[in-house]
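Bumping my old thread because nobody answered last time. Still need a sequence for this structure:
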């Protein structure tokens, strides 16, 4: 058993441990149930849960979340349409998202799937500087698809930009707090 200040109290029967926790006005929480004997601690359970939630929230904030975006092409796509759609794919990847690029075939286009493969190859060639193929092109019914993901350098750059934004935000908040303090003093 571990006391409220973190000191070890030794091996104590459950009833006595519950009584001691009650004396402190705190809860008895089992922190290591798989050890022999199980380890319990006297603490404020509500505060403990709050701190865990706070820690989880902070970890999620630092976590980089990736989404899977989609972009559809056609085998007979015009040059301008291709460039326009590829520009959007580039933006998605620069934001750190994965992109599922697929070519849709209709009717007789199914007889010439090599044109769709050429479109996907052009997309890869256009985005070679920021993207990598995560799953190679494969035919699924009337669609041929592949998944592109950002290169590690792009993800690193995005993390650095996000950290810089947080620093800027904190500076703005500090400045605002100083201005508020000055106004209150006057």
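Sorry it took so long. Here it is:
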């Amino acid at each position: 058993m571990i006391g409220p200040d973190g000191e070890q109290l030794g091996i104590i029967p459950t009833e006595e441990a519950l009584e001691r926790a009650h004396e402190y006005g705190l809860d008895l929480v089992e922190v290591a149930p798989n050890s022999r004997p199980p380890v319990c601690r006297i603490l404020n359970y509500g505060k403990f849960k709050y701190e865990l939630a706070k820690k989880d929230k902070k970890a999620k904030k630092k976590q980089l979340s990736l989404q899977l975006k989609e972009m559809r092409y056609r085998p007979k796509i015009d040059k301008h349409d291709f460039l326009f759609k590829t520009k959007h794919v580039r933006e998605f990847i620069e934001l750190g998202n994965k992109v599922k690029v697929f070519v849709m075939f209709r009717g007789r286009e199914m007889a010439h799937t090599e044109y769709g493969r050429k479109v996907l190859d052009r997309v890869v060639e256009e985005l070679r500087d920021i993207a990598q193929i995560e799953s190679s092109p494969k035919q699924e019914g009337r669609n041929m698809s592949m998944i592109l993901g950002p290169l590690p350098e792009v993800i690193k750059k995005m993390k650095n930009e996000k950290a810089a934004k947080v620093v800027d935000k904190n500076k703005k908040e500090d400045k605002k707090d100083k201005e508020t303090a000055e106004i209150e003093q006057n």
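The chain has a mean pLDDT of 86. Let me know if any region looks off to you.
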